[in-house]
Amino acid sequence: MLPFENLVRIDRGLRQPAYQQIASALQKHIRQGTIAPGLLLPGTREMARVLSVHRKTIIAAYDELAAQGWLEVEPKRGFRVTPGLPEVQVNRPGDPAFGPATFSTGFYRLEPEIPPIPVPAQAGPYRLAIDDGHPDPRLAPVELLLREYRSRFRRNRHVVRPLENGAAGAARLRETLSAFLAQTRGLQAAAANIMITHGAQMAIFLAARMLLRPGDVVLVGEPGYYVANQLFEELGASVVRVPVDDTGIDTRTVADICRKEAVRALYIVPHHHHPTTVTLSPERRMKLLALAREYDFAIIEDDYDFDFHYSSAPYLPLAASGGQDRVIYIGSFGKALTTTIRIGFMVAAADLIVQAAACRRLVELRGDTQMEEALAVLIENGTMARHLKKVNKIYRERRDLLCRLLEEQLGHVIRFSKPDGGMAVWTRFEPAFPLAAISDAVARKGLFMHKGTLFDSPGQSYHAIRFGFASLNEQELREAVSLIRQACDSLQMP
Amino acid sequence: MLPFENLVRIDRGLRQPAYQQIASALQKHIRQGTIAPGLLLPGTREMARVLSVHRKTIIAAYDELAAQGWLEVEPKRGFRVTPGLPEVQVNRPGDPAFGPATFSTGFYRLEPEIPPIPVPAQAGPYRLAIDDGHPDPRLAPVELLLREYRSRFRRNRHVVRPLENGAAGAARLRETLSAFLAQTRGLQAAAANIMITHGAQMAIFLAARMLLRPGDVVLVGEPGYYVANQLFEELGASVVRVPVDDTGIDTRTVADICRKEAVRALYIVPHHHHPTTVTLSPERRMKLLALAREYDFAIIEDDYDFDFHYSSAPYLPLAASGGQDRVIYIGSFGKALTTTIRIGFMVAAADLIVQAAACRRLVELRGDTQMEEALAVLIENGTMARHLKKVNKIYRERRDLLCRLLEEQLGHVIRFSKPDGGMAVWTRFEPAFPLAAISDAVARKGLFMHKGTLFDSPGQSYHAIRFGFASLNEQELREAVSLIRQACDSLQMP
What we know:
Two copies of one chain form a homodimer.
Chain A: H1 4-7, H2 18-32, H3 44-51, H4 55-67, E1 71-74, E2 78-81, E3 128-129, H5 142-154, H6 171-185, E4 194-197, H7 199-211, E5 217-222, H8 226-234, E6 238-245, E7 248-249, H9 251-260, E8 265-268, H10 282-295, E9 298-302, E10 327-332, E11 344-347, H11 350-364, H12 369-380, H13 383-410, E12 414-415, E13 424-429, H14 435-444, E14 447-448, E15 464-468, H15 474-492
Parallel strand pairs in A: 3-14, 5-6, 5-8, 8-9, 9-10
Antiparallel strand pairs in A: 1-2, 4-11, 6-7, 10-11, 12-13, 13-15
Domain HTH gntR-type (chains A, B): 16-84
Protein name (chains A, B): PLP-dependent aminotransferase family protein
Family (chains A, B): In the C-terminal section; belongs to the class-I pyridoxal-phosphate-dependent aminotransferase family.
């Protein structure tokens, strides 16, 4: 309920009777839109109590306003502000109440301004969506996670660890990860080297925030992860793109650039490069570490895909191969759980973690430390390991099925190569088949699909999408591919 | 399990027998610390399968390493890497594995560097904590929220709304808030004016990021919310402190400053100013809006406490009183739920929301849109309104109890005034009772309490804490106050 005692002031000193003072005060607020059209006013008894006047006074005020058309009586419910009054200053349906910002100085825009993601004409909701590599939330151990989570609230006396609600994350999860990282990827990190973040993206943000200042050079793969590139540019860094081939980022080009200019940092996705899904070879990993030492730059190693391998075993992180002094290692549990339960982590020098936590506090104070503790339990009791084993098998089958379907039904339309792991297939379309048109066509059939421009960069158009297979079951994959096939066929009609 | 197939390469061409190649490869990784001390190696069968050699070969390799002391046999479990080998390069217990950052250029530090929060000697965990104004998670409708949340995963086919996983938050919650804000505080905002954030702090960050550039002047209350001040300084803004008295920030001083220099933004907490808990008077609200227009600055209105009033009704936000063109309004559900389920919101001009969402995407992609939808359901079905009514009654009782206890037991030690609402009492200690010593003393009894320096600013020491009462029940409040009393008494002993 609105705080009417503050909206309506009755001055006993005035000649004007109280009911009129109330009526005109309410009318003023209805005009201004502070009392919204269609709003049901409090009952006369309630309003009389709130304004501490006699109920008859309220009835008189309401009747007065009803007579003037400001209120309408709703049988059995009471008085409602008449909807659609022309005099009322509120938003017409559709257009935002606030309109555009009118600070005459304007607010600062992001520079360079971030282009909106082009979306199909159709607004959705969709029956199906081709994401660029999300896990299937239907397979995630959400029930087990939430059971642990809820038990933390059921306790009569909640656990008190004020020092632990730190921006670096729940102490228990940091300890647990210390062991988990050693067992899974040979990474020796103490809890003090580990920070829990709100998804891997926040770890990338904090690493970039710590490393980059306007004008600094950061090397990225081309094609590459557009969100990271936008972030680096937004921080004022100069983003230099290095070609990515079948074994990852081209180290020879990296060396050439280092000889020419001072490089501050290198951003890589060593397992299943985003978007092309190639794996960085061990030789190149060693080469990059050597270059980082020789030319004194930092490596941001975004290894969010480490846990998902189907045709081969993963390689150890650069951070594990003696690169601890140079590398900020980033991982995520988002792919193991869901894209909405966002828990990522950063592994780095202890003093850098302290700074990153201080910086994180300014952005969002802290994460959901209770959820972080619940996740720690799932890792400790082996649930996470079992889950990863299970979904690796299922996602492998989905990858194989999708690749077979693409082969059979879209062989003449696309080019792709089967990824060793991860959750998406880098799918390039032949120019004869415009992705924008295909996207619109399948949208009308209830399938969301990107328009293929996400990964374009200055002077480079890939006409490609990352075809996420992990979140779609067999039937959904078949439907998605056949809808695309139909769209392509209809495009070829004379 | 570690990816041993990539750690151990067997070269059939070599003279050296396979078991020796395996043994030396494993030894190398144990030395480097990639295979951690104490780690249980895979069984001989499993390892033979992984490396595709005969099991006898693995047994020979393990025996060799055991003979050299690298491994030790654990009956019934297998071979374990010997802990505490001097030659192994890993962290000694206690010190972080990575040590300090050794980038010779170093990484950039936050400037000004953010001081760590001073904490008691005692490390915790604590039986009790005096927070600076948190809700009681034991009262939160977490069960109902999580029921809605879980139901979203149980569905065989998850809802597909790719366009909605936007950084601006779940569309359903934005729509629901549009109505909720009109009904509770007379704020007319369309969904396009509303962005869901990860806690109110992220809304403050985004607003500041949009408004402030290095050198810009931002006005804040003194004493004030130190995290916001640190954020503004970190963004390079020049923070100018304006005295706060019993009716809020001193508008005369604001006017004086505006006459002298260009002011870019003003940050206020209109209900229960942080830390002093005073409420900004309606007259001053109008004055601030007038000044904002006259001198062309923006107002960041952090109204996180709007929903918690005990002795009086809340005033309408500046954003509702015709200030829509000048004000960025910030609210939160963190206080209504728990401090860990962090859902806040920002209300502003539509084009500013678009920019803020683009900026948020670079920091953390998106929030937990499923949790946001679950919260929307609780607001729509009236659970939230009932919950707020319930806790307002309980928190009022706790406030009254705490104030009585402070009066009775610490009257000679502290000064405070009873807050109209919110979750904390601004409690200033007499110089004769050093807070640092009291904090350490109660910590030894299991009570966490800040050292009273959080709100100090250059040249200003308040020797005060915000005594959070909402998260402590009657018994806990009594215990906390009596522990402080005991500490004070012992300090006075000759």
